Each structure stands twice: as C-alpha cells, then as structure tokens.
Amino acid sequence: MAFQADGRWPLRGGKTGSCPDERRDDMSEHTPEIQPPGDMDAPEPAGAGREVELKLLTDPATLQRLLTAAVVTRHATSKGVVRRLEATYYDTPDALIARQGASLRVRRSGKQFVQTLKLAPLESVLQRREMEARVPDIALQLDALPLSDLGAPFATLPGSELAPVFITKIRRHIQVVEFGGAVIEVAFDEGTLSAGEKAEAVCEIELELKTGEAGALYELALSLLEQGTLHIGVQSKAERGYALASGTLPTAEKAFATGIGPADTTDEAITKVLNACQRHVMANLMAAHHGRDPEGVHQLRVALRRLRTAISLFKKEVPASALQALGLDAKRLASALGPARNWDVFATTTIAEIERANLPGVDFAELKSAIVPPRARSHQAVRADLVDLECTRFLLSLGRVIERRSWRNDIGIEALAVLTQPAREFAGRGLTLLHRKALKQGHNFRKLRPTARHELRLTLKKLRYGAEFLLPLYDRDGAARKYLKRMSRLQDILGIDNDITTTQSLLREVEESTSSPQAHKAIGAITGWQGRDRLETAEALRRSWRKFIDVEPFWLD
C-alpha cells in the first residue's frame, strides 16, 4: 500500500562484511544524538498559553459517521456548531519560523481574524505553547503579539520579509463533550491545504483538552476507534503545509533526552522516560511508513526497543499489568520491522562494503537486482502493520498509560513504596541486576555458543539503554563514558556472529529465487568474506569481554 503523496496515513476498511541485524542499530547508538527535552516547567511568556491536543486522521465517510457516534452525542454539552475557517501561514524565504518548529498564521472565522504563533512541541507529544491575538484582517500584525518575551529569533522577526507560504480552508464541526472527567472540544475538520498550484485534502478529528487530564483525550480516541478507521496524526496542519510547499519527505529522528534529574522520584522517572520513548516512536512513524530513507525504519525500531527496555527495567519492581501489556505490543511491532531493517542494511551497507574491496571476478549487479523484490515486500509489510488498527490502539494505549500514570494501579504496597523512593535508589538496583545478568551469561566466555552470545548481546543492549536513560541521576561523566564505551565495543564485536546468521538466512532466500550464476557467485563471496570476519575477530572478542568485566559500573559509589 503506497504512502499517499499528501503525507497522510493511507487508510484501509562497523566491520567490512558485517550484515543486516540489530548490531547496525547498536553502532548508530553508541554516541547517541539525544535531543534535549522540552521544558515542561518553564514559565509561560506573557500572552502565551498551552494547547493540549490529539489529532486523528480518517476518511470522509468515517468522519461523517463519527459525527453522530454515540460516544460523541451521549456526552455532548450542546448541539454543536459549524464554522468555515480560512488560514494563511507566513514565513521568511529561508523558513526562519519553520526551522524553529513553529508556525505563524492568521485565521479567519466569519468576520473575526485571529493571529496565532504556535511554538515547538513541549516534552509531551500533546502540548504546544501558543500566543493568540485578535487582528483587524488577514494581514500580519506582528506588534499584536508579545514576541519580545520569546527572545531570538521571534523578537526580531523581519516583518518585511514575511510572506504567505500556504493556506488552509476547513469546514469544522465543533462539539464539546464531557468525557473521562474532562471537557474536550471535538473538531471534525474537512477541507484542503494548498501551496501555490499544489493541494491536498484534509480530513481529521482534533481532540482539544479544555479542562481535566490529558489521559481523557486518549480514552475518547480509543472509544472512537471502536466506531471507525482512525490513525494518530503526527503532523500539524502547519507541518503538512510546509512539507507540501517545499516538497520535503518525512525524516527520521533520534532519541530524545529523558530530562530526569537527581531530585526525581521513581514515579517521576518512569513518567519522563516513557514520555521520551513515546516522542521517539511518534517522531518516526511517518518516515518508517514512507520507506524512502532506511533510517526511518531503523529509528522506529530503536525507539520501540528503548521503550521495551524501559518497561522491562521498571516492571521488575513495579509489576503493573498496564506496563506488561505495552511491552508485548511494542515487541510485536518491533518484530514486524525486523525484515525490512535487515534487507535495508544488506542492500545499502553489506553489499556496498564488500563491493568496495573489488574482489576479482565477482559482480554484485545481479545480486542487487535479486534483492529488490523481497526488500519491497518487507517494506510493504511495514506499511500494512503501521496502518493496522492494532498499531493505532497500541499508540493510543501508550499515551493513556503515560498521562494516567497507570503503573500506579494494580500493584501492591511494596511497589507503591518504590514509586516514592528517590529514582537513584531504584536505578542502582535495576542497573546492577542487568549488569550481573550479563556477567552470568558471559561466564566461561570462550566456550559460549553463538546462541548464548546472542542472548548476552541482547542483555548488553538492555543494559546500555537503561544506563542512557538513568545516566543523568549520576555525576560521574568520566566513569560513565568509559563504561558505555567498553560495553558498546563488546556489542559491536558480538554482533558479527549474529550478522552471519542473519545474512545467511537472507542469502538462502535470494539463492532460491534466482538462477543467475553471477548472483550465486556473489553469494559465495559474501559467505566467505563473513566467515573470515568471524575468525579474525575471535581474539578481539575475548579481549573486549575482559575489558568490560574489569570496568567499574558508574552507578556504584
């Protein structure tokens, strides 16, 4: 199922010769480019408010059906109202505003005009800061907003350079409902977004929190999901408009910092870590679905593994059923991404690295042609999984668990006591358990079989992600860098054994699908090349293990 050109979800009723597997994911994460979190506690600039909103994408038929869904009509506070909205979005020629993750628009509703500056999303995927002011017409009135309170670059926006970039024309049916202890404005939007000669349809439902807890947004969305086909909208109208105007494709995002600190309790640490994981997952859905850049599938897979690690780390002492259910769903989705990631790395990295060696008499052209169909099928499977209703249900459930702090439920007194403890106490126990598990699995390292080495590698992966999550709780940067560096190096080399196993599985599939002598010759060259790698790295692997077991865990005083 092809990705739609308008950017919406489609709807339906190392080492040379190393190969495609999770070790490639590890390598890009050794020195992770962790993005800083938004400051949830930062004071609001004068005139600024916070918008808390969940966007759901759908099709026109479903939109009309959900207008009269029982979950809406039963909880409605009035008959609702219909408005026609027209908005013009402005920016400089070099997209100064867009590069800040912000948008500046003037919207007309009837005879009223409202100018709005929306800032980059905060730590929560639902929240953005915004400034609004009434203006006399559709033209910009920069002095109507207290932009000086925001500092650069907004305080010095060059008004003479601001020009329309795109417009939206929306027919909005608004219904206010009381649901889940909250008051929510439900906006059923249908219309168009246009930039010059280019245009795309808009068909979505916006759930905006007016009062109450944000968890109610996810609960209402889950109820709507039972009535029709919906997908979480990960782009605002502004982001879609900029993409349409510039012709850019969705890009992958690396992990976000958790923002935890030494003063946090375990409960606060769980919230912040899961928030960061959720942001990482949501930020990569479109890039993974689009499939043009292999980094999209890779980063979504990394995000899901980090989420699973966080859940596994916390549920040892806080065994909430809500966390366990999320872990299973994340595992299922991550597994579905595996084949696409394997084919991507094999096509873009493994073959290219060996091809650069210029092996005499070996031509990789036929082999590269033979892997096109299975690679395409693997990405088609990814797209199908990402638009499946079970994926939407998982993402909505993840948001609900975070916003409702559902791990506080269905646990005993001891676990509740853990939640109130300083996060550093919990972190030390959790990391120590993982470290000891790794040492136990690596006992008598020289005699470990490939399957046992693979299990050790997975434990080290969990240990590294856990250490990255909890590192801000400790003021031992030098010790932490040394520990993570040695662990990462060990993971690199351990990955080679698993690389070979994964590569051979892919090569067998290609071997059965082609009779080309050149392709079979290339397959033999790759097999021999990686067999040599295993022999050459055996001693390096033993040295790396010894260095790892000698390093002091940075969380120990």
Automatic annotation (TrEMBL):
Region Disordered: start-end pairs: 1-46
InterPro entries: CHAD_dom, CHAD_dom_sf, CYTH-like_dom_sf, CYTH_domain, YgiF
Domain CYTH: 49-248
Domain CHAD, residue spans: 263-550
Compositional bias segments (type: Basic and acidic residues): 20-32
One Pfam family, short name: CYTH
Stored PANTHER family: INORGANIC TRIPHOSPHATASE
Protein name, per record: Inorganic triphosphatase YgiF
Species in which this protein is naturally found: Ancylobacter amanitiformis
